[in-house]
Structures are given as structure tokens and as C-alpha cells.
């Protein structure tokens, strides 16, 4: 059965101004897509690592793309996401999941960011009904709808290896765009309340390994080591007790008992893996704190800072400073 519409469990909380890295990343994806398709467009200046790009600047960028190249270009340039699938953010979205799982992770990213615009989603095994909405003020424009749908279509095609279709009807008869062909029915590009994505149910997703680094020590028990390996395989966004137990072919109760016999428990192992991966990424020095908190599976930036400080005695920024100390 499809998830309920709207799925309240997937709806983000009240807006907050902490979506800087998403603004930068989305613009970088779309600019990469412009280059892939040989299209010229005015671009915003590259922001500093923690600088916020105002919503008005993103909207102006999309309007310029539409004016120079037409609405169809806003769907096509979502293919710029292929340049980012090997990054920690890309791996966090794609690692070890199916198409509905990818859309849930996208919504989790929106919740983490407290995004002003977000997706309502009704999920079925091989299709999804999507509505791009706003918490307050004006709803997202058609430009913004198409930009997000272009990225999601390209991501789903990359994940499943199958043809992905965007339609304006639930049955998929009124096809608007196909990936990877990128054939677009321009007459179907109009403002609407919802859109529909379709993919093949028998498509096998290519391998997308997680980027987790949570090494076992010499004293680590076999159960703990296996649990950490299963967490790594599932990825930090989707590693729950039930899923890890299923991967290890035991019941959740049995896994908990085995971990207790090793003087541990599942939540502690999951937290240890999150902290370990966060520490690795912090010392790598290439990602902002917001990106790291998300890819490591924390609920929001405050949760990341609090948990990391409790585990290490240092805030993430102080820990990062160790590399230059």
C-alpha cells in the first residue's frame, strides 16, 4: 500500500535559517548541469564555506536559465547531480537503498535543514506522487519545481539503472520527461499541485557503498564487529536495529541480547559509528559542519554538536582545529 498523503512522519518541522550548504550544493549541481549540456548562464559568485545564498538569488538564477534556455532546460540540468554522487552527501543519499528509500532520504535532508520549501510524498513500490510546497509565504515557482524534479529524476535513474519518467498524471500516460533520454514534452510544463515519478519495479540498483569508517579495536567482540559492518553496509541514515538484525539474519531481540553479552547495546554502537565517521570527515577538512552532521545521520545541527561534544569533550569546530594545531 502507498504511504499516506501527506505522510506526516516525513513532513519537516518549522522553518529555520540553517540551509546554507543546501543552497550552495543545489546551485553547484545546476551549474554543473549547464556545463554538461553546453549551456551558458550567469552564475552567482562562489560563496564562502558557511555563507548563505539568499532564496532570491537562487530564484533569480533559475529565472535566468529559463529566460535563456527555456523551461525544459531546468529539468535537463538536474543531471549535474552525477558529478556529486561520489561525495559524502551523494553517498549518504544513495548508499544501499531503493527508489522509495532515496525519496525518504531526500525528505530527511529537508527536515535536517528545516527547508522553507519541501516535498510532500506519497510512495508506492515503483512510483511516487510529489508536491513541492512552502511552509509560509509564496509557494515554490514552476522554475523551482522543475529544478528539484530534474535532480530527483537524475538521481533515481542513477540509482535504479532503469528508465525514469516524470508525468503529470498518476497513470503515467502524460509523460513530461524521461531519464536518461531527456526527451521533454514542453506542452506539459505548467504549474500544478503535484507531479508523478515512475521507475521500473524490477530494476536492480547498482552498488552504492557507504562511506562509513568505524574501525573495530583488538578488543571488539565478534557481534560488535558484525554490527558495525552491517551499519556500514546499510549507511548511517537507514541503520536501524530491525534492519541491522535482518541483515545479520537474527531477530532484533537476539541482536540486543548478543550486544548486551558484549557489554554494549545497539544505540551505543550506532552512535559510535556516527561519531567515528564525523571525526574522520572533520579532520578531512573538505566539508562544512552541516554536511557532516547530515551524512552521519544526526537529527539536526544541534544534535550533532551536542552528541559530538559529549563523546569527545570538544565541539566539532574545536575538533577540526586539531589538524592545524
Structural overview:
By secondary structure, the protein is α+β, with helices and mostly antiparallel strands. It has two domains: 8-198, Alpha-Beta Complex (H-NOX domain); 222-319, Arc Repressor Mutant, subunit A, CATH 1.10.10.60. The protein is 47% helix and 9% strand. It has 13 helices and five strands. The chain has helices spanning 20-36, 55-69, 71-76, 88-94, 99-113, 142-160, 222-234, 241-247, 252-261, 266-284, 289-295, 301-312, 316-320, and strands at 117-124, 127-134, 164-167, 175-179, 195-198. The chain has a five-stranded antiparallel sheet.
Distance between the termini: 55 Å
Oligomeric status: single chain
Count structural domains: 2
Overall mean pLDDT? 82
Q: Summarize the helix and strand pattern as letters.
A: HHHHHEEHEEEHHHHHHH
Helices and strands: which structural class?
A: alpha+beta
Low-confidence stretches: 1-18, 203-213
Provide the CATH architecture of the largest domain.
Answer: Alpha-Beta Complex
Total beta-strand segments: 5
Query: How large is the radius of gyration?
Result: 20 Å
- Gross morphology: globular
The major sheet is characterized as: 5 strands, antiparallel
Amino acid at each position: 500500500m502507498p504511504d499516506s498523503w501527506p505522510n506526516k512522519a516525513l513532513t519537516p518541522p518549522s522553518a529555520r535559517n540553517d540551509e546554507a550548504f543546501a543552497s550552495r550544493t543545489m546551485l553547484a549541481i545546476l551549474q554543473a548541469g549547464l556545463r554538461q549540456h553546453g549551456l551558458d548562464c550567469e552564475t552567482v559568485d562562489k560563496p564562502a564555506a558557511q555563507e548563505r545564498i539568499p532564496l532570491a538569488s537562487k530564484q533569480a538564477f533559475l529565472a535566468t536559465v529559463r529566460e535563456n534556455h527555456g523551461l525544459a532546460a531546468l529539468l535537463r540540468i538536474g543531471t549535474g547531480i552525477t558529478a556529486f554522487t561520489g561525495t559524502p552527501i551523494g553517498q549518504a543519499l544513495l548508499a544501499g537503498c531503493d527508489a522509495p528509500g532515496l525519496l525518504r532520504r531526500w525528505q530527511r535532508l529537508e527536515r535536517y535543514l528545516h527547508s522553507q520549501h519541501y516535498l510532500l510524498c506519497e510512495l508506492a513500490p515503483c512510483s511516487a506522487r510529489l508536491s513541492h510546497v512552502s511552509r509560509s509565504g509564496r509557494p515554490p515557482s514552476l522554475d523551482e519545481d522543475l529544478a528539484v524534479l530534474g535532480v530527483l529524476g537524475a538521481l533515481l535513474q542513477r540509482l535504479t539503472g532503469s528508465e525514469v519518467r516524470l508525468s503529470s498524471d498518476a497513470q503515467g500516460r502524460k509523460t513530461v520527461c524521461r531519464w536518461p533520454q531527456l526527451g521533454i514534452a514542453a506542452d506539459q510544463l505548467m504549474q500544478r499541485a503535484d507531479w508523478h515519478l515512475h521507475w521500473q519495479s524490477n530494476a536492480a540498483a547498482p552498488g552504492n557503498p557507504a562511506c562509513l569508517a568505524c574501525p573495530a579495536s583488538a578488543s571488539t567482540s565478534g557481534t560488535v564487529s558484525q554490527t558495525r559492518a552491517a551499519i556500514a553496509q546499510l549507511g548511517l541514515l537507514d541503520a536501524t536495529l530491525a534492519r541491522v538484525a535482518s541483515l545479520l539474519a537474527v531477530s532484533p531481540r537476539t541482536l540486543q541480547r548478543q550486544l548486551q553479552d558484549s557489554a554494549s547495546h545497539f544505540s551505543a554502537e550506532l552512535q559510535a559509528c556516527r561519531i567515528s565517521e564525523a571525526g574522520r570527515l572533520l579532520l578531512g577538512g573538505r566539508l562544512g559542519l552541516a554536511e557532516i552532521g547530515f551524512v552521519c545521520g544526526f537529527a539536526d545541527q544541534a544534535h550533532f554538536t551536542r552528541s559530538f561534544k559529549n563523546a569527545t569533550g570538544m565541539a566539532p569546530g574545536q575538533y577540526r582545529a586539531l589538524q592545524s594545531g
